[in-house]
Amino acid sequence: MIFVTVGTHEQQFNRLVQYIDKLKGDNIIEDEVIMQTGFSTYKPQYCDWHKILPYHEMIKKIENARIVVTHGGPSSFILPLQMGKVPVVVPRQKQFGEHINNHQVDFVRKISKSQSTIIVVENISELGYILSKYEELVLEKSIGMNSNNEKFNLEFERLIENMFR
Predict the structure, then answer these.
(1) N or C: lower Cβ tally within 10 Å for the chain?
(2) pLDDT value at position 113?
């Protein structure tokens, strides 16, 4: 299953919702597709969709998804990372009326370059290819996300052990 979320930002993200629906309708995507469409006005014809999903349902969808496709909002792509998944991130762009500026584009470029934990798709026409090659692309990425708490605890434990040697 592929789970797509556009978040809850009050502007539409028809570009992503419509393109995923087209990929499903053209049988380029064979998986079941479930979408959270938010304030998008396009109504998918080939995918199961919901405007908004309760948080606990979002978690279940992400856990069960083979692929998570999301917009560039940190909350939406960090959750799959915390579950050990490599999300496909399509940042909202100002030129399409999806956001007030291009901060999502700038942010996901920086994260992709510094962390290598997400797959960024700025040109929507590349999405079908990316989804078809997903497993291969994931092998090139750092899977999941390390918790700073976990890092702190490991370092703290190391310091304590060294004190008693």
Answers:
(1) C
(2) 84
